[in-house]
Amino acid sequence: MKEALSIETERMDDLPLLLTHMHRMRLAELLDKHIPTHGRRQGLSVGELSVVWWAHILSQADHRMNRVQEWGNRRLETLRRCGLESLSAQDLTDDRLADVLRLFSDDRNFQAFEQELMGQLLRIYDLPASCVRIDTTTASSYADVNEQGVLQLGHSKDHRPDLPQLKLALASLDPLGMPLATEVLSGEQADDPVYLPLIARVRRGLQQKGLLYVGDCKMAALQTRASIAAHGDFYLCPLSALQAPPEQVRQEVENQCTQGARLIEVCRLDEEGQNLCIAQGYETIHSVTAQMEGETVSWQERRLLVQSRAATQAAQASLQERLQKAQQALAELVVRRPGKPRLTERMQVEEAIKAVLKQFRVEGLLQVQILEHVQERAVRAYRGRVSGMRRELTFTLTVEREETAIAKAMSQLGWRVYATNHQASHLTLEHAVEAYRDEYLVERNFSRLKGHPLSLAPLYVQRDDHRVGLVRLPCAC
């Protein structure tokens, strides 16, 4: 009798490509080097198991542990032919995957792996290291808040303040946006303290000075800028409204115009090949001093006063809308309606006008005149009330736009101050504007991390060490 032919069919999808790429990155080897395990551990090593899980996450856009074993059973032969000869279905159980997350949550071991991987990837792919971007995001969960846990209520960047969250800080390398270092914090913590530890880890991993660190206004804390400058690196970040108040910025712009300073234009080519001005600005130099670890640090800082055309147009449209709403509110102020309190004194009308102008932030842009009308009418005697004349005071308002003040306010919109300690010969105002506008590179990492294909949020794991490990798991590949 002839032996029956047995045929098994498996979907390979993108697994050979993913596993080959991770083998080239030496992910399994580096993990096994830096993450110690129990001496009697059997089956796949932590590094090999992590590679299989990474392949599942990237291929299926699903980080849930209970889906991995079934997925692996349907692709055992494919996974074995891709360098995982000893793989069995028992290697992909929930408890072994949870053990990987627990090991990833160890700060010292994971950071050692992260730093060696960082330097190796730059050597393997011959990536230039000149600009590092740092930003933070949040990942929410439907789990309960634990007072001592990493999930806490805080300012949500996902617009879900009702859900507990953890905070993730990420440093990525231009121009690919390749993740270099990650930091996981509890969800209620501020962003400011995370920048210096993250920068220090990047500096140790790349073993290179003179890098440009780009971040948002939370990176502009004086101690952060002082530390970057003291270590021979450079920063580029906008100053917050507390560091550069709007009135101070407007005064500085007026001073630059009065002194005849050169207005620098930043242009791009449009679809028709014509130069299109996207921003303009001035440049000033300031001496900055800060105390760092008991020592005084001083350096020269360039302040870039930049007016974005897009931001200016949006702000001007917003101002026009506020002016229109303020005019409508003022017109309705003294109109009598059922159930509406009447304003019977001039002082009440003046206070109501001030409140409307403040609410819509249009002080000094609208001129409001109050006209008083006095009416007297006879009142008949009734019971104990004697007859007489009653005096009623009513008001009408006339509202006019202060076009000169409005035009001046329009011209002052859209200005923002950027700070950098980089030399103008290496980072011009034009290059600084372009560099900050490329901040979408790190935002794109967050989009991939929390959406397709990594699908980190919402978090379904229940333990804090698993949550930390799960955040680090996709960032490491």
Description:
This protein is an alpha+beta fold and 477 residues long. Helix content is 39%, strand content 23%. The protein contains 16 helices and 11 strands. The protein has a 9-stranded mixed β-sheet with strand order 3-2-1-4-5-11-8-7-6, with helices on both faces. It has a two-stranded antiparallel ribbon with strand order 9-10. Strand 2 (165-173) and strand 3 (178-186) form a beta hairpin. Helix 7 (107-124) packs across helix 8 (195-206). The longest helix has 23 residues, at 309-331. The mean pLDDT is 85.
Summarize this structure as a short list of keywords or feature phrases:
single chain, 477 residues, alpha+beta, 9-stranded mixed beta sheet, two-stranded antiparallel ribbon, 16 helices, 23% strand, elongated
Please give the structural blueprint.
Blueprint: H1 15-24, H2 27-34, H3 46-60, H4 68-73, H5 76-81, H6 94-104, H7 107-124, E1 131-140, E2 165-173, E3 178-186, H8 195-206, E4 212-214, H9 222-230, E5 234-238, H10 246-258, E6 264-269, E7 275-292, E8 295-308, H11 309-331, H12 346-359, E9 366-379, E10 388-401, H13 403-411, E11 415-420, H14 429-437, H15 440-450, H16 464-475
Parallel strand pairs: 1-4, 4-5
Antiparallel strand pairs: 1-2, 2-3, 5-11, 6-7, 7-8, 8-11, 9-10
Helix pairs in contact: 1-3, 2-3, 2-7, 6-16, 7-8
